[in-house]
Amino acid sequence: MSVEKFELALADGKFSKAERTWFPNWWLRFREHLIHHQLLLTEVDQPIVIRFLQQIKSTGTEAWKRLQAVQAIDAYFREVLQRPISGLDSVIAVLTRVASQERLLGDGRPVSANETAGLVGIIDPDEPAMLQRVRRE
Length: 137
Prior knowledge:
By secondary structure, the protein is mainly alpha-helical. It contains seven helices and no strands.
C-alpha cells in the first residue's frame, strides 16, 4: 500500500496537479478505512469502496470530494496494482452526476423531493441494491 509508488505513478503526466496533490491523501484515508475494518487490498471490491464513500458522506463530505476519493482509489488500483476494481466506473458516473447537481443547486440547501425526482433519472432494477441506493442519494 505504498504512497510513494502511487506518487510516482501520478507523476507520469496523465494526472492534473490537483490530482497529484489530493489523490495520495484520499488513498491514505481509504487505507486507514481498510485497516480500521481489517480488510486486505485483495478484498477490495465495489461494495467496500461504496461503504467508504457512504462513511465519508456521513461526515458531510461533498459529492465532488467523494468523486475525487473514488477516482483516487480507482487510479491506485489501475496504476499501482494493475488491477482495476470492477464496477467503479458506474460509481464514478453516479458521483459525477451528483457533484454536477450539487454544483448547479449551489447553495447547500437540501434538495426537495420534486428536485430529486428530476435529478435521479432512471434506476435500473437489475443493478445491485447498493448501487441503486447510491444513485438515489
